[in-house]
Structure formats: structure tokens, C-alpha cells
Design goal:
Diaminopimelate Epimerase, Chain A, domain 1, five-stranded mixed β-sheet, two-stranded antiparallel ribbon
């Protein structure tokens, strides 16, 4: 379900470090909830193969209880039976991205995600901001 107000909009952070909480410490949704628990958050690794997200984002995207995915894609599950917050490969984290709210215009998250820099009328490169 898309978020409906700018305050609810997904906060996307790119180039996240696999060891953002320390060497060998697995990042969990609970850790991200402590950082930002009242707004959906996704942190995408610099290699774009892994993302980490907080509980509210998992709930909004319908991923908190996991989901069957194609081989090579994974929603890492915790010992409690709920998603731990680590999402491996695009099929796992695209549902989070599909909940992007673009204020003033609605375009799909896939367009946001895959959009290459475009050229404006003055032919200067520009990127999409949200």
C-alpha cells in the first residue's frame, strides 16, 4: 500500500555499508526501528544486492511475515518467525520500493528505481529527486 503523505513517505538511503553497525554485526529491523521507527526506511547496499529496512516498511509492503521468492532472492527471517530486516536481491526489496510516494506526481517505483539520468531542455544531465 503506498504511503499517502510526505511524512509517511519512504526514506531511501543508498550506498549503505554491510557493516554499518560494526564489523560482523547483522543489521536488523529492530536496530533500524531505533534509528527511525515512525517512518518507513530502506537502506540499499552500494552493490544493490542487499537492502535493510525497518518494521513499518516491512508491514506496509506486506513482507513482515515473509514471502516465497525465486531462487537467489531472500527475505531473511528471524528466529521469531518475522522478517529480520535484511532483503537480498531485487525481488525481495522491490515490494518496499513499490510503496514510494512521489509528491506531486505518481510514477511507479520501478521507474524511480531504474530511471537513468535524463537530460533537461537545456541538455544538462539531471536525476530524479523525491
Amino acid at each position: 500500500m503506498p504511503w499517502t503523505t510526505p511524512e509517511e513517505a519512504l526514506l531511501i538511503c543508498k550506498a549503505a555499508d554491510y557493516n554499518m553497525f560494526g564489523e560482523g554485526i547483522a543489521t536488523t529491523r529492530q536496530m533500524l526501528d531505533e534509528v527511525l521507527g515512525d517512518r518507513p526506511l530502506i537502506l540499499i547496499a552500494g552493490d544493490h544486492h542487499t537492502a535493510w529496512t525497518n518494521t513499518i516498511a516491512l508491514e506496509k509492503a506486506g513482507l513482515l511475515k515473509g514471502r516465497d521468492l525465486s531462487p537467489g532472492n531472500e527475505i531473511v527471517m528471524g528466529d521469531d518467525g518475522f522478517a529480520a530486516g535484511e532483503l537480498r536481491e531485487h525481488q525481495a526489496f522491490d515490494p518496499i520500493m513499490l510503496c514510494v510516494l512521489r509528491v506531486g506526481a505518481k510514477i511507479s517505483a520501478w521507474q524511480e528505481w531504474s530511471l537513468q539520468p535524463t537530460r533537461h531542455r537545456d541538455n544538462a544531465p539531471r536525476t530524479l529527486r523525491f
